[in-house]
């Protein structure tokens, strides 16, 4: 399992693509935070960073994970992989953890804004770390979805488009914008049910400093479910 993890993780840094993705992610997150009022009313706050983060992750994560299995299937190296003394389950977990660690590197780069905030004021570090925990859990769930999509096809573009579609819809499904749009079209109870499956709603609670057990359970359950789908597809 360890050799597969090292191969996948270091593979992101052996080509310019990994650095381009990290740079683009860092620029997008910081730019959106500044655009939506990072320093407003003489107060520096990370709320604008976290409030848009799920939408950036919905694009960034599929770009990172689209190659996990589709590239192996396209090049034929998947047969070579399973001639090694490693089970499909271990291979799925190793690839997933390698990509997740790379994503965490991207999240760590945005911590520069938290340091800037501490210089400009006196932020609540509990809220900041809660937000980053929520970001990591959201990333894990999005990555599990992307890995399952990547296992279904040999084409990285198809895996990218399919996983972005699922991630964006799962973020949009409980948003305030959609709730206002559907307010007079569907029963209120249905809107409440949709919110239970919304990434944005679960992440918002954690971005405000609340370590919500229901949100953690949602992310962990969804991550394990899609990793299970990934394992089933690979084993077949």
Keywords:
236 residues; ABC-2_transporter_component; mainly alpha; 13 helices; single chain; transmembrane helix
- Which strand-content bin applies to the residues? under 5%
Strand order of the largest sheet: 1-2
Number of domains: 1
Number of strands: 2
Straight-line distance between termini: 20 Å
List the helices and strands in order.
HHEEHHHHHHHHHHH
Mean pLDDT, rounded to whole units? Answer: 81
Shape: globular
Number of helices: 13
Low-confidence stretches: none
Task: Indicate the structural class.
Answer: mainly alpha
Describe this structure as you would to a colleague.
- It is a single chain.
- With 236 residues, the chain is mainly alpha-helical.
- The protein has one domain.
- Helix content is 79%, strand content 2%.
- The chain contains 13 helices and two strands, in the order ααββααααααααααα.
- A hairpin with a 2-residue loop joins strand 1 and strand 2.
- The longest helix is centred in the middle third of the chain and has 27 residues.
- It is globular.
- The chain starts with a helix and ends with a helix.
């Amino acid at each position: 399992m360890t050799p597969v993890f090292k191969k996948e993780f270091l593979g992101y840094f052996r080509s310019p693509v990994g650095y381009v993705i990290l740079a683009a992610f860092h620029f997008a997150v910081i730019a959106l935070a500044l655009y939506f009022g990072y320093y407003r009313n003489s107060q520096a706050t990370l709320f604008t960073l976290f409030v848009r983060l799920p939408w950036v992750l919905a694009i960034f994560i599929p770009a990172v994970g689209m190659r996990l299995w589709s590239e192996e299937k396209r090049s034929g190296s998947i047969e070579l992989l399973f001639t090694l003394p490693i089970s499909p389950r271990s291979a799925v977990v190793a690839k997933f953890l390698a990509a997740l660690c790379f994503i965490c590197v991207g999240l760590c780069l945005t911590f520069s804004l938290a340091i800037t905030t501490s210089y400009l004021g006196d932020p609540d570090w509990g809220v900041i770390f809660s937000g980053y925990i929520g970001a990591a859990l959201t990333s894990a769930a999005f990555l599990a979805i992307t890995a399952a999509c990547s296992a279904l096809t040999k084409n990285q573009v198809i895996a990218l488009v399919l996983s972005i579609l699922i991630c964006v819809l799962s973020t949009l499904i409980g948003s305030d914008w959609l709730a206002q749009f559907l307010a007079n079209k569907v029963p209120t109870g249905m809107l409440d049910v949709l919110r239970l499956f919304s990434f944005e709603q679960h992440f918002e609670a954690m971005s405000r400093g609340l370590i919500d057990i229901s949100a953690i359970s949602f992310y962990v359950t969804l991550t394990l479910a899609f990793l299970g789908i990934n394992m089933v597809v690979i084993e077949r």
